[in-house]
Design a protein that fits this description.
The structure is a homotetramer of 284-residue chains.
Chain A lengths: L4 E9 L4 H11 L3 E9 L4 E9 L7 H14 L3 E6 L5 E6 L4 H11 L6 E7 L5 H6 L4 E3 L7 H14 L4 E4 L8 H6 L4 E5 L11 H8 L3 E8 L9 E8 L6 H24 L3 E4 L2 E4 L2
Parallel strand pairs in A: 5-6, 5-8, 6-7, 8-9
Antiparallel strand pairs in A: 1-3, 1-4, 2-3, 9-10, 10-11, 12-13
Chain lengths: 284, 284, 284, 284
């Protein structure tokens, strides 16, 4: 919506005058503030996301960081700057299930996702026709226990070469190793097919069926070294009952997964998420 | 949560520098900004809710309005100022159904609602024992077509005398006349037992049953002269099916009504609502 | 799931012994009852859906109707018989928006919808590539006020020739005339992009925006002569707030529409719906 | 609704003719079948709940069991018989939080719960005024580690003496020992304040806060020897976000708990639940 805006994320220990100092900085250089959100947690931390119009802003985009640096130092901030005009480049990793892949592509084409899908990477050939139909490069890297480390290196090289900004695991059935995770820190989004932290690990629908829950869930989260333990971005649930077999749960879950993954990816692409510790602050 | 804070609501035509000017005003007088929310609509209007800590604030509460006046004039703002320490005084109007009445009293006692329930007014005696148990003054004003205008005058006088700030219609089965509505502008909250604008008017559950809808709803809204047409604050729905009779809808609806009314009342009491035209901006 | 089962739907005035008579009929001929659902409404009507395994059933499928006739006559039943092995043939009517079309095709291919999509009919060329990719015949019939009656006749002829069992309006932007509706009675399913009966007719998202509702909905229903007044099959809602523009509602609504339409179509294809008057009984 | 009906629950290995045999049994003795639900699981088990009108039924209530016995033996059924006219006698166990207690009492008085609340048992005096206001006997049994076994014996004796049919733990902050659980098998319903199996045990809201989930839940379930592991009856969730402190979760959770506990209790009281293994079949 705001084609040309700058977005500043920051966190620091709460002190008086932070909001005013930042808004003053922006206004002093003729920036019109579009959104300004804050959050305080109970440990005394302060978090902020502020977005302003870059039209008429007196500082060039590439100079903002150095201009802002003194304020950041003064308040000992963790911070980052993004631009709404930056259109993140996405790689989608997928195995055989195609429902999340289709959903991401279709939402992207419908203008719901601010991204260029630069490539689809898979350990199987199954989804290649989809890539061809939508004219997206498709790379197939079969993975075995022996080749995994080597294959991941190739994948990293490929994604780095194409300047990939965000990696989406769209029901990708391989556990990523540290090297891949570290290559894209806080840039890998996964969909787990349960309401985390319930049913971590393999076959969550089987676990849910066997426990007799009355709702099943899906969770999109950033990938960290701890399996299914990364910061949660979005979650939702759908009602099930005793009539539903495991395959009914899989079917209901499929439609939940594609929705919850899309929500998580959208929030990331719209520059709305600040990760702090193992939690997300979603300024939405 | 913030015992001593000031909350400024404003709306005006959008121009550059509003946010900065306001945050500068607050900070200049040593106010620590706690929350700052903005909204822009597509017609070019700007809306803001900003809350700051009154501890250390250099201007006395009663002097803030005149200190802020020049800024308001400059930007041609509509604005109002509230204080979190102001605990609104509530009157609850009720007829015979007691579920919303109980919910409001119990949530208030549990600390969920920032209010003093000063009185219960009814056109029936049925709820008097509840008032007595919870030690709340109960006033019974039987209403007939002939006496209605006169009775409302007495009710207004009573509420004005007790400095009532917010009037909650907790399934009150009388249509208020203009004089009462005008006496408490944007301070009367009603619960309508449908998903407005569907099923306006009488017997919405019967209407819903007869239309065969698969969800029923409830809506809390400010009361205006147009029946069931005032600004909507909160809405929710619950699933129904062909097995449900009208009386099942009434039962399911009862639990929805008490929840949706409480949500609407809570948002009002927490100073989170800005009404513009016939819509609410809920800064939550 | 039950590849070879018979499904009997019936309605009649409630009397003692109906369930027993029907279950006795089925068992007498060696049918194993798989599901047996009843419903009674308050006007004294009885409704039933009973499904039994056709393996070992002593009556041939084509002879069941005449064998059952005496019971139907005795209780003055309205009734119909369906077979789970009958795979309904679907025609999808679409204009330019492709999200519902994709959803139906993808769910069908994923095995969620028990149907053969035999054709896509449109008044525009836009969706032809989708049809080609998925290898479904695509017929484009441009419609003008003058040609509408003639075009519909051709469409009816085409669908009758292909023995279409169910017609799905997947955001088809033409109002059907009586001749088309009558040609496929209770076999045309539409998605309306509001929570009916709120916001009947054109531009429901604009209506919802302008009323300031806090939830938007979608409704799948059978098409009757009265626009947006047919029996409701499925409904759902999604939360919106003041930040959402009309185009945000359109986007959120798009994902709701595809889900609610799919639910409605699935229930129809799984032989779970009995229409009585202007309401549906969904045996699910 | 059906004042005088019998309800038969049964489970056995699936075989042809069960439904017909049972419906024939009922009809042979002039019973009008009101509801007949079945369920098959994938291991080949058959489950049934059938309800019939006792008016005109030729067998006296106390004779039905022996009349039905031969069928039960033939199919090797687990079965039980209940009567809608049996109004279960309830004991509510509560500690200090009163929100679930109020909800159960108020819903019971509103006619939503088919029960007589015969007593409230607590380990604290806090809720006594509520009991007095609603005229329900209140028994206070302070519990210490040393006295626990002895106290439970007294509680069991008291509940047995009053012929208690169902025990509801309305946020009762004591873990029941085996003797109490065994004294009321499948008759004790608890509310756990999380979406089980996530956040088993103490302080689930703190656990949820610390994990950063985007939804919190509540679960009503039958109490078994394994803490928070019993058969789940009902579950629901509510959305939370980073702004919510632990105490906000507690508040949101409170309203969820009272709703989910009431749902679970209602299903039990309406004779709609069949427990099989560690799961519930809810015929609703």
């Amino acid at each position: 919506m705001n084609k040309e805006s700058a977005i500043l994320f920051l966190s620091c220990i709460d002190r008086k005058g932070i909001v005013a100092e930042i808004t003053h900085f922006i206004t002093m250089y003729e920036g019109n503030i579009l959104n300004c959100d804050q959050h305080y947690d109970e440990s005394g931390m302060f978090f902020m996301r502020v977005e302003w119009d870059m039209n008429d802003f007196a500082i060039l985009p590439e100079k903002i960081e150095s201009a802002f640096e003194p304020i950041a130092v003064k308040f000992e901030m963790d911070w980052r700057l993004e631009f709404s005009s930056d259109r993140p480049k996405m790689a989608i990793l997928v195995s055989k299930y195609d429902h999340c892949l289709y959903e991401l592509i279709l939402r992207s084409r419908a203008g719901e996702l601010n991204t260029d899908i630069k490539m689809i990477i898979s350990n199987h050939e199954d989804c290649r026709p989809i890539a061809e139909y939508f004219d997206i490069p498709y790379y197939c890297f079969p993975v075995t226990k022996e080749t995994k480390a080597e294959v991941e290196k190739e994948e990293i090289a490929l994604m780095k070469k194409e300047k990939i900004d965000v990696v989406v695991l769209a029901r990708y059935m391989q556990i990523l190793s540290s090297q891949l995770i570290e290559a894209f820190p806080r840039k890998i989004i996964n969909i787990h097919h349960s309401f985390l932290p319930a049913f971590v690990g393999a076959k969550p629908y089987h676990q849910a069926f066997s426990r007799g829950v009355k709702l099943i869930g899906a969770t999109s989260h950033y990938v960290t070294e701890d399996l299914d333990q990364g910061p949660i971005i979005a979650q939702d649930v759908v009602r099930v009952n005793h009539k539903n077999s495991v395959s009914d749960l899989v079917e209901k879950g499929r439609n939940l997964e594609k929705s919850v993954l899309s929500q998580g990816v959208r929030l990331h692409l719209e520059h709305k998420i600040l990760v702090f510790g193992n939690k997300t602050i979603v300024f939405d």
